[in-house]
């Protein structure tokens, strides 16, 4: 078995090295595998200037069968290596992401989201024969259905100005100072923007977690992991990429290394559970009182003495009745039911739960 040393790049073939890693040893995997773009010829702009497309040797495969077998091997190894509580991110384009997605499902991975990275400055379609390809897709998955996994919901909400983070993410492709070049040429043809990795790592890890990137390239995963005070391991067989990545990461210094700067608040999941009935017991709500659904005064339920709600002929918990009104979609009753205060204004019942937590009323 490969001995794991944190914050290093392992030189070699990803398939061989992954298969030598200890089982259940990493918290999160971010994989940016070859896309197998299947380019048939060189690309030129209308002004006859050459387009530096992805034509690297590492993106060459004989056929789809060869690519699928390659994908199956590294994904199988990743599934063995990632922890039961861990997750994997895989990014790709229309050339490969559907094949990879099918293989992941065949291997038993459970999809949590597909994220669309919308490129705010995409490369044009110079020949004018297709739509401009302006996005890539990330698959976020856990090891199997029902697995517990880390998701820093509150951090994502805070990052998005206190709104739920959506699955469409807007970032420019690497240009300007962020694009690593040597002798005026791009070092890596598919270098990812640091903002994309910042969001991935912030969403699914805590300081001290270990992030593995089996196709490390120019080291974006390691660079962002270091900036967020996380551990990382990269696997890369190109010695030029390894040198560039080490130089890049070595330049990064934390402004403040105190744990509280980087640790994410997950207290909402750990706070003491407050049953809805506690609001009745403390006199904050009363039997017979109306609760309004999503601030809509035309739809309301009546509170029963036992804490259940009654909406027409439907009765149940605040969550059960909310789910009924949402057409069967999962619904958190604390977020959708409103009470009328003394001034006649509608306020969310979650405010009452918060008051109990702050004042210690039980």
Task: Write the SSE topology.
Blueprint: E1 8-11, H1 14-19, E2 26-31, H2 64-81, E3 82-92, H3 97-106, E4 110-119, E5 135-142, H4 153-159, E6 168-171, E7 181-182, E8 185-186, H5 194-204, E9 210-213, H6 220-227, E10 231-236, H7 239-250, H8 259-262, H9 267-270, H10 277-281, E11 290-293, E12 296-303, E13 309-311, E14 314-316, H11 318-325, H12 333-336, E15 337-340, E16 346-348, H13 350-359
Parallel strand pairs: 1-10, 2-3, 2-9, 4-6, 9-10
Antiparallel strand pairs: 3-5, 4-5, 7-8, 11-12, 11-15, 12-13, 13-14, 15-16
Describe the model.
With 362 residues, the chain is of the alpha/beta class. It has two domains: 8-267, 3-Layer(aba) Sandwich (Rossmann fold); 271-359. Helices cover 30% and strands 23% of the residues. It is built from 13 helices and 16 strands. It has helices at residues 14-19, 64-81, 97-106, 153-159, 194-204, 220-227, 239-250, 259-262, 267-270, 277-281, 318-325, 333-336, 350-359, and strands spanning 8-11, 26-31, 82-92, 110-119, 135-142, 168-171, 181-182, 185-186, 210-213, 231-236, 290-293, 296-303, 309-311, 314-316, 337-340, 346-348. The strands form three sheets. Strands 1-10-9-2-3-5-4-6 form an eight-stranded mixed sheet, with helices on both faces. Strands 14-13-12-11-15-16 form a six-stranded antiparallel sheet. Strand 9, helix 6 (220-227) and strand 10 (231-236) form a beta-alpha-beta unit. The mean pLDDT is 88.
